[in-house]
Design a protein that fits this description.
single chain, 175 residues, mainly alpha, two-stranded parallel sheet, globular
């Protein structure tokens, strides 16, 4: 009761707040993949979008083999997995736009199929703010795991171009 009396003694007093939060231009924070807020660097954008994409491809390939045993569950999972990946891509795009100090509504371009590839490459190759901006502190330097993810992503991307081209080229003859 004593603590209540102390804080409630003057109901009309201005609230006490620390106004110097996040004003340090050298402040950083550690981004995570499942966060909806916070800035995201270029390498983390690459790792956080491409590695889950390949995981979705592998799971969809497994679902093709399991489709005879549980067809309803297989179809539901086959529709849910790409949708979850799309949500992840949109969230990481918005976080990357925060890092570049752009308005978040530019993320709607990721829903336009021919344009989304160009937007993704733009987000991948253009640097963000080096220090804290109005959207928060800069992301911490990349960890060893992020760098290992990049080492894994680049061969996966380059290695998937040839099989995709072969499937696209020979698909009409495989019917």
């Amino acid at each position: 009761m004593r603590g209540m009396k102390k804080t409630m003694s003057n109901l009309y007093a201005a609230p006490a707040a620390d106004m110097n939060v996040d004003t340090d231009p050298g402040a950083t924070y550690m981004p995570t993949i499942l966060a909806f807020r916070g800035r995201l660097g270029r390498l983390r954008l690459l790792v956080y979008t491409v590695l889950p994409m390949f995981a979705v491809f592998i799971l969809l390939a497994l679902l093709v083999f399991l489709r005879g045993r549980a067809p309803v569950a297989t179809v539901a999972m086959a529709r849910l997995l790409p949708l979850l990946w799309l949500v992840l891509v949109i969230v990481t795009t918005l976080r990357r736009l925060d890092d570049m100090n752009y308005a978040r509504w530019w993320g709607l371009l990721m829903l336009v199929p021919p344009v989304n590839v160009l937007v993704w490459f733009y987000l991948l190759f253009v640097a963000g703010s080096e220090t804290a901006n109005e959207r928060g502190p800069a992301p911490a330097p990349n960890t060893v795991m992020v760098k290992l993810g990049v080492v894994l992503v680049v061969p996966l991307l380059l290695g998937s171009v040839w099989p995709a081209y072969m499937l696209y080229s020979f698909y009409p003859f495989m019917r």
